[in-house]
Design brief:
- It is built from eleven helices and four strands, in the order H-H-H-H-H-E-E-H-E-E-H-H-H-H-H.
- By secondary structure, it is mainly α.
- It has two domains: 131 residues, no CATH class; 115 residues, no CATH class.
- The strands form two sheets. The protein has a two-stranded antiparallel ribbon.
- Helix 8 crosses helix 10 and helix 9 runs antiparallel to helix 10.
- The longest helix has 22 residues.
- Bound molecules: zinc ion.
């Protein structure tokens, strides 16, 4: 089994959490009697996760009789969950400190169960089934984890590696009195077809296009202010300022990836002829 969080397996962490409970409580007695079944279930989880088939995992029937005891193990304040969160933010290269990996907008103020604990109570405190996320994403996560074709809805930040080529884009168009920016997904750079389909399902489940749009409305004024502060008096000046912005997105993308909504927005605005003509008019310049 995987060694994790201080050289312990997820099952050892579970077992220790049971040992910390009051030995004579009905919960502890029931959990102790079922420890071996939990250990088997944890192994099964890990194997299925490693083969990226979590969507096909069936809930444990033999543990359904102790469902309430298993669910009672989980609390956001319990030691196991707190230790896990600290470990996670220090060790998962695909997530940044305290930011929800599902949306990359909000802070990860909750701990999310990859397989919902109401359906899979046996994994309520399996650290491989936990990931810090935001409450907004959590509210979009439903009990169904796969679509009608058996394909899982959400990216798994332990087993799926997101590509560093662009699949998220921002389209900038003129509207009455200004410009607007809309995000869209497109597989124009050849992301693996299965991975791209997963990204599309993930975006849909968490309403990311709409949520990024809402963020873009605020962020677009920051880009406008940037150009206004750059002392631009000619088209060459504008191009220089735009190139400076592009270099900045290149630097930032090393940390956040090329498909981070803010990086996409800054890059696509800085390279957009529509945005340029809008900005030039704002600055009272003619191209
Ligand atoms: Zn989120």
């Amino acid at each position: 089994m995987k060694r994790y969080a201080g050289e312990k397996t997820p099952y050892e962490l579970f077992s220790e959490a049971v040992d910390r409970k009051d030995k004579n409580s009905a919960d502890t007695i029931a959990l102790n009697a079922n420890k071996h079944k939990v250990e088997i279930a944890y192994r099964y989880y890990e194997r299925t996760m490693d083969s990226q088939k979590l969507g096909s995992l069936t809930p444990s029937r033999v543990l359904s009789s102790v469902k309430e005891h298993l669910l009672g193990m989980y609390s956001s304040r319990c030691k196991l969950v707190k230790d896990f969160r600290n470990w996670h933010f220090n060790n998962n290269p695909q997530t940044y400190y305290n930011v929800c990996p599902y949306c990359t907008i909000n802070s990860a103020n909750t701990t999310e169960h990859i397989l919902p604990k109401e359906v899979y109570p046996e994994y309520a405190v399996n650290v491989l089934n936990l990931i810090p996320a935001c409450s907004e994403c959590n509210s979009f996560k439903l009990y169904d984890i796969v679509d009608q074709n058996g394909e899982i809805f959400t990216i798994n930040f332990y087993t799926d590696t997101l590509p560093d080529i662009r699949y998220l884009f921002a389209r900038i168009t003129h509207i009455e009195g200004g410009v607007q920016l809309e995000y869209y997904l497109e597989n124009r750079n050849g992301v693996d077809a299965n991975l791209y389909a997963l990204i599309e399902r993930h975006f849909k489940r968490f309403h990311l296009i709409d949520r990024y749009y809402a963020k873009a409305v605020q962020e677009l004024s920051n880009i406008k202010n940037y150009f206004k502060s750059e002392d631009i008096s000619s088209e060459d000046d504008y191009d220089r300022a735009a190139n400076k912005l592009i270099r900045k997105t290149d630097e930032d993308s090393i940390e956040y990836g090329r498909n981070h909504w803010r990086i996409v927005m800054y890059y696509d605005a800085a390279t957009s002829p529509v945005f340029k003509s809008y900005m030039m008019a704002q600055l009272h310049l003619r191209p």
